[in-house]
Design goal:
Blueprint (H helix, E strand, L loop, with lengths): L1 H24 L15 E4 L2 E4 L4 E7 L2 E6 L5 H10 L6 E4 L2 E5 L5 H38 L5 H34 L1
Antiparallel strand pairs: 1-2, 3-4, 4-6, 5-6
Helix pairs in contact: 1-3, 1-4, 3-4
């Protein structure tokens, strides 16, 4: 019974890890990456769209992002949206496209990015703790109702802790990898 409760929650824990990975992808490292700009919200014709719905985004060189809008009329709105983001580079209009040349990261900016990575890790840990507490509360309730035996409750606690430790390890490894990318 308790195994079902724990297994039923694993997809939620996976979602927390996947969300963390997507957030890390948005943090700039020394190389250009489409994820830096693809979710930038562009106000176009009175509606808001993610940039990836308005343009093709490519990486022609390691430190350059090329944005080719489906329609030239989107360019002013795209430039305006990009200027509001904190990627540390100014967009340049080049005929029917927008170029972003990423400057090298200075030491202070690298430290602030590493701090952001740590903050994202802590948010993910909070989510994991929330699910741990929720699962444990459910196991305790089922024990009071007599659906889970008392000795199984303690097995459940140990097994739950193993699962939580596994996900916390994923958070640590992912964060350490991103911090290494940012500081090199």
């Amino acid at each position: 019974m308790y195994k079902e409760i724990i297994n039923r929650t694993k997809p939620e824990l996976e979602k927390a890890i996947n969300f963390l990975e997507r957030e890390f992808a948005k943090i700039r490292t020394g190389r250009a990456n489409p994820s830096l700009v693809e979710d930038v919200v562009v106000d176009c014709f009175g509606q808001k769209f993610p940039l990836k719905q308005l343009a093709a985004i490519s990486i022609p060189e390691p430190k350059r992002i090329l944005i080719q809008p489906w329609d030239k009329s989107y360019i002013p709105a795209i430039v305006s949206a990009l200027e509001r983001t904190g990627i540390g580079a100014n967009p340049v209009v080049d005929k029917d496209a927008v170029r972003i040349n990423l400057p090298p990261l200075d030491e202070e900016y690298r430290k602030s990015l590493a701090k952001i990575v740590s903050e994202k890790q802590e948010e993910a840990r909070k989510t994991i703790r929330h699910w741990r507490d929720k699962i444990w509360d459910e196991i305790q309730l089922k024990t009071k109702e007599g659906e889970i035996r008392e000795d199984d409750k303690f097995r459940a606690k140990d097994e739950l802790q193993k699962v939580i430790d596994e996900y916390n390890k994923k958070i640590e490894e992912s964060g350490d990898k991103k911090k290494k990318e940012v500081t090199e």
